[in-house]
Every structure is written in structure tokens, then in C-alpha cells.
From TrEMBL, chains A, B:
It comes from Zemynaea arenosa. Residues 15-75 form the HTH tetR-type domain. The keyword Transmembrane does not apply. This is TetR/AcrR family transcriptional regulator. Keywords: DNA-binding. Residues 38-57 bind DNA. It holds the Pfam family TetR_C_3. InterPro entries: Homeodomain-like_sf, HTH-type_TetR-like_transc_reg, HTH_TetR, Tet_transcr_reg_TetR-rel_C_sf, Tscrpt_reg_YcdC_C. GO terms for biological process: negative regulation of DNA-templated transcription.
Amino acid sequence: MTTKTAASRRVLNRDRLEAEIATEAVRVFAECGYEGTSIATIAESLGMSKQNLMYYFPTKQALYERVLDDVLDEWLARMASLADPEQDPREVLRAYIQAKLKFSREHPYASRVYAMEVIGGAQLYGAQIRERVVPLVRKDIECFERWIAEGRMAPVNATHLLFAIWAMTQSYADFEAQMALVLDRKALTRKDFDEAEQLITAMVLATVTQSAATEA
Amino acid sequence: MTTKTAASRRVLNRDRLEAEIATEAVRVFAECGYEGTSIATIAESLGMSKQNLMYYFPTKQALYERVLDDVLDEWLARMASLADPEQDPREVLRAYIQAKLKFSREHPYASRVYAMEVIGGAQLYGAQIRERVVPLVRKDIECFERWIAEGRMAPVNATHLLFAIWAMTQSYADFEAQMALVLDRKALTRKDFDEAEQLITAMVLATVTQSAATEA
DNA sequence: GTCTATAATGGGATAGAC
DNA sequence: GTCTATCCCATTATAGAC
């Protein structure tokens, strides 16, 4: 038991507390938006004073950026390295859709905070998106295009195909409120996500299947 | 020239000014969110004092609700009565996708304000969505289901098919910032929208075509 | 690291003259 | 209808005791 272990314990404890704060913050930011969120609200739901919270995150913007960083970390951990041009296109697309829908189901607040930032023009986080998201997206598109060049996928517009997959899967987190109103229930269920996965997969596979390429 | 015409001219002028204010407000709300928007900002871009703006809209919330009402009016004017079960499914779907993409292209701010409201849980406008949007959506879904029952459309999940069409078409307004980063340009072009329309139409038509029903 | 106290700002809303 | 002036409150952020 040296001072070194005590110090590292302190650091670990700080990391844990910061993570707890960020977890609560993502929920409030998703429900109220950046400007609509007060750090006092977040602190209160954690049973802590807002001054204490500001000891860990000196500014509201710092907390917001931490939240977005966490969102991106979790998203990239799940989505990076899924699109492998060596694998079978149909299996990769299945897995891609499944992973994106799972993220929407398990991290709806993360998805919403990110969506709001993008809708508002990504004024604060655009640079990070350019650095961390865009390269991954381009890699996915190139994977699609290679499959097309190799004749393993119907010649569709790879960029817009990816946009379509994104939009369809993300909407189950972002627009849940509206979907729930249409379905006349409080929230989406596991069954809704399973049905969504089935339809989206069918749509995408029908699109990339050679015989469907001449449609429309 | 009676006082009556003068009064009606006054009313007309008031209507015109309110519409001008709402038009500017939808842009600012879309870029900054509800709480992030100050009425002083809107007033300033119109060259008017905020007190003067508040003569027309006594509260910020009243202005916001007016903006959402306008958004819904414009959207319903374009989208209502498109899904006609008597028509050919493929032609209706084509027109539906085209109309939704056109709305995204011509009214991006309207789309974004609406999206932000829904993402935040539709806390302020949920009742209006239930009354004005949900019935229309249900009618569209029923149209799809009738086509399926009549064997004119492959037996897919009609509700999720509509969710998918919505998500894909709306994303070109809501997530333009991210798409522009991927495409490495300042904003989406007419060509992007045309390519999107082609792919989305191909996807939907491939999905509702009988032979594709057994996919996935 | 947590507390009390307080500065400093911004913004929604109102009152009243003209 | 438009202006000047002002109130009031919420919120971010800081200072300093313990």
C-alpha cells in the first residue's frame, strides 16, 4: 500500500464518477437538447451538487463533448471492421444491419444526441465526425464498390445504399416517439426491432441481388 | 374606401408579417434548437426589435407552435391523398418517394425542426402528431395492406415498409451535414437527390415485387 | 473533493409612452 | 404597432472555506 496505489485508486474513482456523469448526461441531452439541458438537472438526478459536477467537467461544453466522444467510441467499437470485402456481401450486410439496429435498441439516447448534433449542422462536432466517422464510412462504401466491381453485388449506388441503411436503422432510435404513436404503444418492443430487421434486410438484399438491379 | 377595407388590409398585413416571422423562425429553430434559439436573434435577422416580434407572437412557445403548424400544413398538403388503393402500387410508391424527397430538398429546415421535436420525445407537439399525422400514416399503411391482400404487392410488413420510406427520404434533409462531409462538398446537390430517388425507388420496388418476397 | 456564496450574463416577458 | 426601459428569473461559472 504505497501512495502510488492510493493515487491510482483516486484516478480510477475519478474515471468511474466521470463515466457515471456522462451516462446520465447523455439521457438528459437527448431529451432536452444541448441548450435545453442545465447541468443542475444532471447533477440533481445523480444526487450531487452542480458545483461538484463542475469539478469533474469544468464547462458544460466539456461535458457535452465527452458525451459525444463516448457515443462515438461505442458506435465505432461495434461498427468498425464489419465491412470486409473478403467476406460474403449478403452475410456482411445482414450483420451490418443487425449491429446498427442493436445499437439503436440498446443506446437510443446516444443515437439521439448524435442525431441532434448532426441536424443542427454539426457545428460543434463536425471536425470529429470528419476525422473519425467519415473515413470509416468511405471504407464501407469502397467495400461495396469492390463487390460491385467483382460482380458479387448488383451495380447500385454504393454511397446512397449506405445512407439508406443508416437512415432506416437509426430511425428506430431517433423517431421512436413517432413510431410508438403510430403503433399505439408506449415504446417500441423487441418484436418491433425484429420485424424491422427482417424487412430492412429483405429490402437491402433484394436491392443488391443481381436480378433486381434493373428495377425502377 | 371604408374603414372595413382598411381593417381587412391591416389584418392581411398582420398575416403577411406573421408568415415572414415564422419563415425566419423555422430556419433558426432548425439550426439552434428550441432552447438554443432566442427571439432576439430571429427579430434581429428580420430587422425588427424583439419587443415588436412579441407583439405578433406573445410567447416564444406560441411562435414555435406556429412554426410546427406551418411545417405540418405544408407537409400534409403534399403528402395527404397520395396513397390511393385504386391506383397502381408501383406508381404510387414512385410518386410517394418523389414527393417526400422533394419536401426534404425544398423544405430542409421544416424537416429538421420536426425531426428535433420528435427526437426530443415530441413533448410539446405529440398531441398534434397524434391527431394530424398518425391518421394519415395509418391510412397509408392500410393502403399497402389492401394491395397485399389483393395480391398486388408482396407480403411485406406494411408498417415497417412505410417507416423505411420515411427514414430514407427524410434523412436527406435531417442528416445533410453528415452526408455532405462524406461526399466532401458543402451541401447536397440536385444530382444527389436524383441519385437518392433512383436508389430508394429501386429498393422499395424490389421489395414489393412478388419474386423478392421470399428473400432474407 | 465537496460545500456555501456569489458574480455575471442572457433572455423571456411586461409596462407604458408615443 | 413600434419604441424605450425595465423586471425577473434561470443558468453558467468562479471564489474561497473546510
